[in-house]
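User: I'm preparing a small set of examples for a lab meeting where we compare how different chains pack in three dimensions. I only have the primary sequence for this one, and I'd like the structure in token form so I can line it up with the others. Please keep the answer compact; I'll paste it straight into my notes.
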Amino acid sequence: MPKVRYLLWDFGDTLADQRWMWPSPDGAPQWTARYQALPESELDERWNLGELTTEELAVALTADLAITLDDMMIHIEARCRDVRFYEHAWTAARTRALPQAIVTVNADVFSRFVVPNYGLDSVFDRIVTSWEERTLDKALLCRIALERLGGQDPYDGLLVDNIEANVDAWRSLGGQAYLFSSDAEFARDWPSLAS
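Assistant: Understood. Below is the structure token output for the 195-residue chain.
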């Protein structure tokens, strides 16, 4: 692989298991199924674009359930303290081998709770989220991250992402990309990526 100057990391299902929000709180067992169905809904797009706050999303998903918004938010904050990171990918990111950014399609809940709970801003030089940038276009988010890291040429940035369409979109702009399929495969491939 050609020389890489910047690392652009996806978060969910690349650095960490995306399912941290799935468990239901007491009194709202329907939460899990509703949250799992969220990616198929217009609510998900609006949430990831910053058009809905986490509180507004919680109300929309639990309005008919016997749980208060305060209790739902306590549950959401607790879930954001229970993220399971993938051993090898997370270790690689924490080595800070190169200037690096998280580039994620994610809502305000990520910035408000996950980032501070895990000190992500001390591991990554930049954190670029769809809700703050108001776009779901991963290649555009990568370009923004690269520029904030001080880069100009997409070729200098390696995107590590578990979604093939995101990898293809970044490559179409001239960027380098690695399709993350499992932490075990990543552990095998990382030495050649980081060299």
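A couple of notes for your slides: The mean pLDDT is 95. Residues 138-149 form the longest helix (12 residues).

User: Perfect, thanks.
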